[in-house]
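Sample entry (72 residues):
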Amino acid sequence: MLDTNILLRWIKPDDRDYQLVTSAVEAMLLADAVLCYTSQNVGEFWNTCTRALDRNGYDDPRPQCKTTRLLN
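Predicted structure, serialized as tokens:
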């Protein structure tokens, strides 16, 4: 199962763990692994994306653009 922290780092190229997460997810996909997430993960992802920077969020008013990449 993909943890929310993995989902968040996967869409943020300037995150210090972006390369690690991207490589790990790519390796799992190449190994035909089934990657799963829950509605809880999606809710946490959405909340972090839309939360203000000063409240430890990404301050992104339109995370749906990135969510499309995540879900496809």
